[in-house]
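Troubleshooting log. The previous structure file for this entry was overwritten by mistake, so regenerating from the original sequence record. Sequence copied from the archived sheet and checked twice against the printout by T.R.
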Amino acid sequence: MASPSSTAATNVMLAIFEKKTVSLDLYRPLRNYIAFNYSEREAQNLEDDLQTLKQYRSEIERVPAASLPARRDILQNYYKALCAVESRFPISPDKDHINSVFFTWYDTFKNKQKAVQQNIHLEKAAVLFNLGAVHSQMGLSLDRSAVEGRRQASHSFIAAAGAFAFLRDNVAMKASMGSSTTVDMSVECAGMLERLMLAQAQECVFENTIAKGSTPGVCAKISRQAGIYYEEALAALTVAPLNYHFDKGWLAHVQLKAALFYAEACYRYGMELHEKEEIAEEIA
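Regenerated output below.
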């Protein structure tokens, strides 16, 4: 589920909880594969790398206790390590591959649903999802009652959008092969979350634009773009496979934000026309 901002002085925004997994030993299957297919000496030479991978996986499994920036760094390092593993170790049900590794991840929004695959792309997709989630939590944790806090929050939401966009474009399809999949890592869900995070980033920009006393025309353009992002997220939430997957509160929240920023854009544009004394178009 998502967690809303609790600061009364700021507008409500959403952050995403991380996906949960189960304990997994990558060290032993990978080491055995190296020793069997190459040599024990080669396995010993790679001992430090294998131990580092084991440590990263162990940290991923824990309930997040580190600071959000530290959690972000762990996820980024583990993702890089997984890319190296993918290029060197075949993990699949094939008898000649590493076939004793099963990756298990639970759906963030329906936590009784899970995906279990012998597919490293599932692991990579989950790590990218969690990276986006952590960035969203970083954005929500900042003090958005001040200009600098809103600026930093906008950057965090943009980073979250980037993680979800990368998931959508590069990994989601590969992680959805087979029957054991979850909706939260689908192309559609990753795309919706990208638009939601972009909307929240744009909302922070709009709040700063108002605070700086920018012209009504500038405010109208920025608020309209925020509204468009919310409308795109809403469109994704109202069709399959997402229309029955999210709590009704999600739909209500995004729907309200889309309407709010459309109205805000109209209001600010009307102010601009009034200043230009274009009364007929202002009334329209």
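Residues 5-10, 280-284 have pLDDT under 50 and may be disordered. Archived copy saved in two places this time.
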